[in-house]
C-alpha cells in the first residue's frame, strides 16, 4: 500500500516578496503558531488556531474553522466552515495522553463543512495524504492512516487505527470499525460499515459488507485496460475462494504483462488480521457471483 504523500518537513523558504499573511481580525491565532503559518495562507473570520499548528502556502481557512493544536496542514488546502482539525481523540483510553497527539494533512486537500479529524498517538499520529476530499460531516478518528486521493463522501465515519489505501472511495454514510484496512482503489458502498479488511480494487456493498466484485468504474477512470481489470476481478474472487491454482496462474500472467496488481492484492490478504470481507454468496454457502 502506498504511503501518503505528506511532507516530511513543513518548513519552507519564504521569499520576501510575499504579501503579508491574511488573517481576519475576528480570528484567534496562538502566538506559537504564527511563525508556522505561511505568508500566502488565508485565515477567514471566526477561526481558531491553537498552539503548534503549521499551515502551508496558499491554504485557505474559509470561516469558523477550529484547529485546536498539534496539526500540520500543508499547501493548497481549502477548509470549509465548522470543521475541526486536530481535536482530541474521543477514545477513553487516550484521555490520559492529553494533547500530545498529532495530525498531518498533505497538499491539495479539500475539507468540506463539519468535518472532524482527531490527533493520533502512534509514531506518525493521524495522517491524511495529498489530494483527498473529505465531504461534509465525515470523521477521521485517532491514528488513522488515509492515503493519497481518498474520497470520503458525506457522513462517512472512520474509527481509530483504520488504514485506507490510495484512491479508495467511501460512499455516503459508510464507515469502518477500528483497525480495519481498506485497500488501494477499493470502493465501499453507501451506508456500508465494514468490520473486515477490504481487498484492494474490490467493491464492498450492503449492510453486511460483502464483496460484490471489483471497482470497475473507478479503475476505468484511472485508465486501466479491460484485460487488467478482468485479471484483478479473477484474482479478487480467487483470493476469497482460496483458489491457489488460479492465483498462481494470474500472478505469472500479469507479471509477464508488467503489472503487479495481483501480487499486491495477495500481500494485502496475507497481512490481514481481521479477515477479509466475504464474497457475495459465501455467507449462504454459495460462491458464484
UniProtKB/TrEMBL annotation:
Coiled coil: none
Ranges of residues in domain UDP N-acetylglucosamine O-acyltransferase C-terminal: 197-277
Matches recorded under Pfam families: Acetyltransf_11, Hexapep
Superkingdom of this protein's organism: Eukaryota
GO MF terms, alphabetically ordered: acyl-[acyl-carrier-protein]-UDP-N-acetylglucosamine O-acyltransferase activity
Compositional bias (Polar residues): 1-16
GO biological process: lipid A biosynthetic process
Keyword set, alphabetical order: Acyltransferase, Lipid A biosynthesis, Lipid biosynthesis, Lipid metabolism, Transferase
Region spans: Disordered: 1-20
GO cellular component annotations of the record: membrane
Protein name from the UniProt record: Acyl---UDP-N-acetylglucosamine-O-acyltransferase
Species in which this protein is naturally found: Cercophora samala
Amino acid at each position: 500500500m502506498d504511503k501518503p504523500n505528506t511532507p516530511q518537513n513543513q518548513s519552507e523558504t519564504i521569499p520576501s516578496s510575499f504579501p503579508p499573511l491574511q488573517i481576519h481580525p475576528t480570528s484567534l491565532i496562538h502566538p506559537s503558531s504564527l511563525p508556522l503559518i505561511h505568508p500566502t495562507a488565508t485565515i477567514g473570520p471566526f477561526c481558531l488556531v491553537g498552539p503548534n499548528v503549521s499551515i502551508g502556502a496558499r491554504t485557505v481557512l474559509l470561516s469558523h474553522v477550529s484547529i485546536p493544536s498539534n496539526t500540520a496542514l500543508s499547501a493548497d488546502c481549502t477548509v470549509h466552515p465548522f470543521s475541526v482539525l486536530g481535536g482530541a481523540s474521543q477514545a477513553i483510553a487516550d484521555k490520559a495522553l492529553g494533547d500530545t497527539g498529532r495530525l498531518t494533512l498533505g497538499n491539495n486537500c479539500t475539507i468540506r463543512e463539519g468535518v472532524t479529524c482527531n490527533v493520533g498517538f502512534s509514531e506518525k499520529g493521524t495522517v491524511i495524504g495529498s489530494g483527498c476530499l473529505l465531504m461534509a460531516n465525515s470523521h477521521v478518528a485517532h491514528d488513522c492512516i488515509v492515503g493519497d486521493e481518498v474520497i470520503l463522501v458525506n457522513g462517512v465515519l472512520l474509527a481509530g487505527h483504520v488504514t485506507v489505501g490510495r484512491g479508495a472511495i467511501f460512499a455516503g454514510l459508510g464507515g469502518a470499525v477500528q483497525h480495519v484496512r481498506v485497500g488501494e482503489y477499493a470502493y465501499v458502498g453507501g451506508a456500508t460499515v465494514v468490520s473486515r479488511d477490504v481487498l484492494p480494487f474490490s467493491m464492498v456493498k450492503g449492510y453486511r459488507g460483502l464483496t460484490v466484485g471489483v471497482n470497475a468504474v473507478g479503475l476505468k477512470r484511472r485508465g486501466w485496460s479491460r484485460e487488467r481489470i478482468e485479471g484483478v476481478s479473477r484474482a479478487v474472487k480467487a483470493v476469497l475462494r482460496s483458489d491457489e491454482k488460479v492465483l498462481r496462474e494470474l500472478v505469472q500472467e500479469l507479471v509477464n504483462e508488467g503489472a503487479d496488481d495481483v501480487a499486491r492484492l495477495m500481500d494485502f490478504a496475507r497481512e490481514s488480521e481481521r479477515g477479509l470481507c466475504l464474497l457475495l454468496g459465501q455467507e449462504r454457502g454459495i460462491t458464484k457471483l
